[in-house]
Amino acid sequence: MSSSPSARHPSEGDRDAVQTQLEEGPARALAYAARIRTFLLASSRYVAYTSDIGEAIRPIVTPAVVKAAYAVSWL
């Protein structure tokens, strides 16, 4: 049950290849996709919050202010 030292410890070239693959391969795109997904989910929360604010202040402000709150929620 002996194994060669190179089988247990990757060479410097192997580590560089793995590093390059992580930096330039599909894993990088997946990381960006995860961040975009997080941004979209968070921004949808703010859209809902802005329209709720418009409805909450409806009794005390002019209709133009309520419409402005809805306009902000659609930006």
From TrEMBL:
<dbReference type="InterPro" id="IPR019560">
    <property type="entry name" value="Mitochondrial_18_kDa_protein"/>
</dbReference>
<feature type="region of interest" description="Disordered">
    <location>
        <begin position="1"/>
        <end position="20"/>
    </location>
</feature>
<dbReference type="Pfam" id="PF10558">
    <property type="entry name" value="MTP18"/>
</dbReference>
<dbReference type="GO" id="GO:0000266">
    <property type="term" value="P:mitochondrial fission"/>
</dbReference>
<dbReference type="GO" id="GO:0005739">
    <property type="term" value="C:mitochondrion"/>
</dbReference>
<protein>
    <recommendedName>
        <fullName>Mitochondrial fission process protein 1</fullName>
    </recommendedName>
</protein>
<comment type="similarity">
    <text>Belongs to the MTFP1 family.</text>
</comment>
